[in-house]
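Slides due. Your pick:
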Amino acid sequence: MPRHHISFARAAGRRLRRNYVWILAVQVIAYYGKIAIHPTPAATLAEFADRAAVGPIPGWVVLVIGVLYNLGWLAFALGTLWLDRSGDEVPSLPVARRLASRMVAMSILPSSGCNAARNV
């Protein structure tokens, strides 16, 4: 069985940062431009959100899902960048514990579901 030098997550993160982040950025800019100016420039934020609607799904839901989608990929890219810069495949225990406590404090992780990170 082949032995890989880096994990799948690190390899995917590198590929995301080097290739796909630019594709996602172009898509976001194009989508924003399409909604903002077609067929006429949007005068209000409400009009902008209404134009983002897809069928029966309200525009604000579509925009929130789009923002969460792109922020998720950004978080993955930055997380794997942190792994690459740390030099370790798995971050040291104190670093992982501090990161988990910060994520709980920022409400990224639910406090009740983070027992594994606290007990490490």
